[in-house]
Fold this sequence. Notes:
Layout: E1 4-13, E2 17-27, E3 30-35, H1 42-50, E4 57-62, E5 65-66, H2 72-76, E6 79-82, H3 94-104, H4 109-122, H5 138-150, E7 156-160, H6 168-182, E8 186-191, H7 194-200, E9 203-208, E10 211-216, H8 218-225, E11 230-235, E12 250-252, E13 255-259, H9 265-274, E14 279-285, H10 289-297
Parallel strand pairs: 3-8, 3-9, 6-7, 7-8
Antiparallel strand pairs: 1-2, 1-4, 4-5, 9-10, 11-13, 11-14, 12-13
Helix pairs in contact: 3-4, 5-6, 8-10
Amino acid sequence: MAILEARELVKIYPGGVKAVDGISLVFERGIYSIMGPNGSGKSTTLSMCSGVLKPTKGRVYVLGLDLWGKDWIEARRHIGFAPQDMPFNPKLSALDNLIWFGLLRNMSLMECRTSAKKLLMSVDLYESRNMLVGKLSGGMRRRLTIASALIHNPDVIILDEPGSGLDPKAKEDLWMYIQELVEDRTLIFSSHDAREVERFSKWTYIFHRGRVVAEGEPRKLIEEYVKHPYISVWFAKDVIPPEINGSRPLVFGSIAWYSLEDVDLPDVISYLRENKMPFKRIEIIEPSLNEVFIRLTGERLME
């Protein structure tokens, strides 16, 4: 039995906007990711899987319990959800906010205090436990958000863009805490950062326009869809990227990507110089899930 399973989820917003179009997902224990650009349906899907947003169609099961059926109360006890912007009370301390979230989960006051203090120590916020949330840094708030999702010790943790907006050091620190806290649970996170998905998830679902266009282990997806590195050329404005030695590039504005399967770096440089084509920069890019997304959709994951 899957820990969490979504079956044929559809979400249509007022006005007929279809944000999610028949998505099915299966999660066991471990770290999973949903990858896609903004507007691809990631947040909507996670909200439906966490019990926050009701699907227009489809079902969600947590440990066999129907999240949107008669078992909804019991099912929600197994889920901890951390949206991008957790609704903390800025006039309460970090500790009091966690206690409040615990009380909302029907925990006793003593259970809330015990769990909150333990979690604050786990995410290195214990010394700041009495600081008002409104005065916490972005990285500290994000760690507190993770703690709030774990206050009731759920089996499933759902994080919407946990590293978004953080500098590289803060993001690295956050993931250190996340990995330590997950242990043998199911963690599902969304991201538009291909490198983040590759590093931390064992399985990813790639979203595009409300649908799953691919799924699998990140490294195997890269090996399947992008077998060779790319040469990336930043051309001067208004220059049309040429075909070189029969290699037609993928073009995004003034940036062109040539596959090393078809052409090598000296060939590209020689061609550009001989034909006096102005360019600003050239480099070799190792394959990542970003290139997989481009191969699948013809669009860039991040602008």
